[in-house]
Amino acid sequence: MVKHYIKLLNGLADAVKAAVGYKFYSVSLLLTYDALVDDENYDNYDNPESYFATKIRLNLIDFAKSKYDEDSQETDQDMLTGIENLLKCLTYIQENPEIEPYLSYV
What we know:
The protein is of the alpha+beta class.
């Protein structure tokens, strides 16, 4: 499951890099996982990994204080640093599943 969050975070980083002129203040990331197994839809997937990937979400929330400066040609480096730090943590967890309490099942 961790690798799916990493994939979503990389996509978010790409979106922030493309958002030239935007500055994000006090933004939060909401990472969710719907653990309820939908037995009816489970059989429609080739493997468990693809099924569980549909249950993972990453949402950018609390960005009411974000600003856009049309004269700016910069991307929000602070936002990218935060994403990169979270990516480092999740990559470490993925590469070291034996370390408790972090477990990477898929």
